[in-house]
């Protein structure tokens, strides 16, 4: 088995454009809790969901007023915006979002006249990590065929979960800082300094993952949905997802059987689930296969159930969970 093989099922309608040029427009702001998104005495930023909110707060510091479209505990993939949120977006100085993760946000940003629009997906390179399902009814899928499907919109979607790779997340952070500096030049020096501090945090996190996962009994881990493709690729692991990119999708019986067999073959000890969506399928799979369960947080939101107060804290908890499950030495 390839060490960096990350499989997920096909998703239609959420195709992501590959890395595009850095767009430094202006962002729109919306508040999911009803508070005003714009018209404050600070640089008003609306963030689409927690990983974007964290970047805006860390880089902006005291100079920004950040509101988020996705409330704590709300699953972000299927977010629907209210008319009020969409209207408020235009009042912000900037909007920070990740194109392809939340279609409703993509649409609202596209229709908004907010000056600075920052698409995190354009600040790093998105990748196609393949299909989570292996059985294609006996059909041979050649690379040429796959490319044709992708071009026609029927192939695999590019994976938007870049924030779970500290290195790619740092690339996005650098681009966000540049956008803030351009949109709010009066505080450019502070944005630059804050970004440097954040870069050191993310570099330290990357080092911790490299060292912690360098030597393990197994390189394969099971997850509830295919959110950890970039993390797996970065640290030489193999993600096997019960569901695809969509955490609410249902796995086929063939997929469940396949995972049970693979658990035995690859020495898998643990099935990971997450806090924002039901872990029922993951727990059932674990019970039937005689495996343990634990939380591997895709960091799509912070709640009271999160094993950490912020991005770095939760990622450190994820590392400990992976070390235990994979038998780190």
- Number of helical regions: 10
Share of residues in helices: 25-40%
Rg, alpha carbons: 20 Å
Give the class from helix and strand content and strand pairing: alpha/beta
Q: Please state how the strands of the largest beta sheet are arranged side by side.
A: 2-1-3-4
| Average pLDDT metric | 82
Give the biggest sheet: 4 strands, parallel
Principal-axis shape equals: globular
Order of helices and strands: EHEHEHEHHHEHEHEHEH
Given as residue ranges, the uncertain stretches (5+ residues, pLDDT < 50) are: 1-35, 132-155
Number of strands: 8
- Multimer state: single chain
Please report the distance between the alpha carbons of the first and last residues.
22 Å
Percent strand: 5-15%
Any overview of this molecule?
- By secondary structure, the protein is of the alpha/beta class.
- Helix content is 38%, strand content 10%.
- It has 10 helices and 8 strands.
- It has helices at 50-60, 83-89, 103-111, 143-151, 166-183, 188-212, 229-234, 253-266, 280-289, 311-326; strands spanning 43-47, 64-68, 94-97, 116-119, 220-223, 238-241, 270-273, 292-295.
- The strands form 3 sheets. It has a 4-stranded parallel sheet, with helices on both faces.
- Helix 9 links the parallel strand 7 (270-273) and strand 8.
- Helix 1 packs across helix 5, helix 5 (166-183) runs antiparallel to helix 6 (188-212) and helix 6 runs parallel beside helix 10.
- The longest helix is centred in the middle third of the chain and has 25 residues, at 188-212.
- It is globular, with a radius of gyration of 20 Å.
